[in-house]
Amino acid sequence: MKTGAILLVGGMGTRLLPLTLKTPKPMLQVAGVPFTEHQIRKAADAGVSEIVLATSYKAELFEPYFGNGEKFGIKIKYAVEKTALGTGGGIRNAAAALDKCDQVVVFNGDVLSGHDLSAQLDFHRKNKAEITLYLTKVLDARAFGCVELAANDQVKTFLEKMENPVSNLINAGCYIFNRQVIEKIPANQVVSVERQTFPELLAAGISVFGYLDNSYWLDIGTPAALVKASADLITGQIKSSATPKHSGDYLISPTASVASNSSINNGSVIESEVYIESNCQISGSIIGSGAKIGSNCRITDSIIAPNTQIEAGMVVIGNYLGF
C-alpha cells in the first residue's frame, strides 16, 4: 500500500512571538536544523513516498530550503493557502497535490514526538481503520483535545479543550486517513479537523481508531518548549535522524569560534559564525548564526537571535534576545 503525507505548516505561530516575526514557526532552528526537517525525516524513515507541505504564513521560505525533497529521501510538494483554511481545510487543500496513494499521514507542524510511525501505520492497516489518531497520555488534558477509547481501541468521543476532561488521552497531532475519507472534508472552506471533522465523521459511523504511544511528546508552540525540544534532541532524550552528528551534550558549528575556557553544555546549539569570548557559560541554549557573545556571560535556557551582540558580563536566563 502506498502512503503519502501532509505536513500542516501554515500557522503564524503567535505563541512563539517574537521568534516568528520574520521566520515561520516550522522553519525555526531546533537542534541545528529547521523544525520541519525532523518531521520530514520521520516520514521518510517510515517509508512514506511523498509529503505535501501545507503552507500559508511566509510560504515562500520553505521551498528554497527543502526543494523537491531529493536530499531528504522523499518527494516534497507545496500547497499554498491564499487565506488560512484551518487544519481540516488545509488537509483537503493539500491532498489535491498528492499522487495516487492508499493512505495519508497528517502531521501537525508543531509537535515533536518519539512515537513509532511505522507501528501506527501497521495498526491502521491491521484494524482496517478509516482514520487512526495517534494518542498519548498526559496528567492534565484541559489544554488539549481529549479522546475516549472503547475496549477495542475505537474512538468513542473526540472532544476539544474542556475544563473537566473525560479522559487523560489526548490527540497528539499525527493522523492516518484513508485517502477517500479526506474527500468528505468540504473544499475551499475554513474547517477545523479537531472541532468539526473528527466529531462529524464519528457521528457518521466512520471507523476511527486510537493508537496509544506514551513515548516522548512535546508541543513546541512556545519559546521555552522550543528550547527544550532542541536540548532534548542534542542530549539524546529523543532521537531524530535529522539531528546533525555531534559528540557530547552540545552541537557547535565548525565555523563557530569558542574561547577555550568557555563552557558549552546541556544540549546547547552554537550555530555558524558565532563568536564566544572567554569565561562564558552557555547552558541549554540556542545561539543563532553570526551572534557575538562578550566575555564573562552566563546564558541559560535562552535563544539569542542571529547576528545579535551580547555585551560582556550579561546574565540571560529563560530569555529570547535580538528578535
UniProtKB/TrEMBL annotation:
Residues 5-233 form the Nucleotidyl transferase domain. Pfam families: GMPPB_C, NTP_transferase. Keywords: Nucleotidyltransferase, Transferase. It comes from the Bacteria. InterPro entries: GMPPB_C, Mannose-1P_guanyltransferase, NTP_transferase_dom, Nucleotide-diphossugar_trans. Residues 248-316 form the Mannose-1-phosphate guanyltransferase C-terminal domain. One of its GO terms (molecular function) is nucleotidyltransferase activity. PANTHER family: SUGAR-1-PHOSPHATE GUANYL TRANSFERASE. Belongs to the transferase hexapeptide repeat family. This is Mannose-1-phosphate guanylyltransferase. It comes from Candidatus Nanopelagicus hibericus.
